[in-house]
Amino acid sequence: MLNKLSVTLSVVLVASFSLLLNASEVKTIEWTDLMPEEDLALLMAMPEIQHDYSQPSPFDDNYNGNDPVAGQWEQILQSARVKEEFNNTKVRIPGFIVPLEFDAEQNVTSFFLVPYFGACIHVPPPPPNQIIFVSGAKNLRADMIYSPFWISGTITTQPMSHDLANAAYSIKADVVEEYTY
After folding, report:
1. Highest-confidence segment of 4-18, 51-65, 125-139
2. Do 101 and 133 contact (CB within 8 A), yes or no?
3. Angle at 89 between CA 85 and CA 94, to 5 degrees
4. pTM (2 decimals)?
């Protein structure tokens, strides 16, 4: 009887420990993982951009034409659609930092994480579902922002708006570390 109870208790403890480990597991994701299928399908179906400078460009402010390709690009570039299955999930994602706030020692405390260098500084910024607002950074010096970083933390589908851009996702950073492949 004691042996059966001991085995049962061991099985329950192992199962409980396993569930606890899975709950705190960090999932490494890529930027395309954050795009809903319809956005990714639109992006993959885009025709090659033509560089015919003799014609008006659909991206010029004074463009008056009706270019369906330009409409598709506009739809992708403005998409704030998110994948709800990532809400409140521990993730790890690489990216570049666009600083938003600093502390008294000029350390970056909040920033946008973006998939490529120079995003949000050059026009146009990535779509909101390709920008993540990150808070809770520690000891991230302003002179470090030219390198890529791994950001680990809990991602949410909480949007954030700023003068530079809009983010469809947010992360409370647990770990900010320089990117290594």
Report:
1. 125-139
2. no
3. 105
4. 0.77
Total domains in the chain come to: 1
| Domain at 42, CATH number | 2.40.50.870
Q: Is residue 16 part of a domain?
A: no
Least confident of 18-27, 113-122, 148-157: 18-27
Task: Find where tokens 């933390």 sit.
Answer: 153
Cα 71 from Cα 115, distance rounded (Å) = 23
Across the range 97-121, mean pLDDT stands at 91
Residue 33: its pLDDT value, please? 97
Whether residue 131 lies inside any domain: the answer is yes
- Dihedral over Cα of 31, 42, 77, 133: its sign: negative
- Whether omega for the bond prior to residue 126 falls within 30 degrees of 0, making it cis, is no
Instruction: Work out whether strand 166-167 and strand 132-135 pair parallel, antiparallel, or are unpaired.
Output: unpaired
List Cα–Cα distances, 4 to 11, 42, 111, in angstroms: 11, 58, 55
Q: Give the domain extent around 101.
A: 30-178
Would residue 10 count as lying in a domain?
no
pLDDT beyond 60 at 164? yes
| Nearest alpha carbon to residue 96 among 84, 108, 83 | 108
Q: What is the mean pLDDT of the chain?
A: 82
Q: Is residue 56 part of a domain?
A: yes
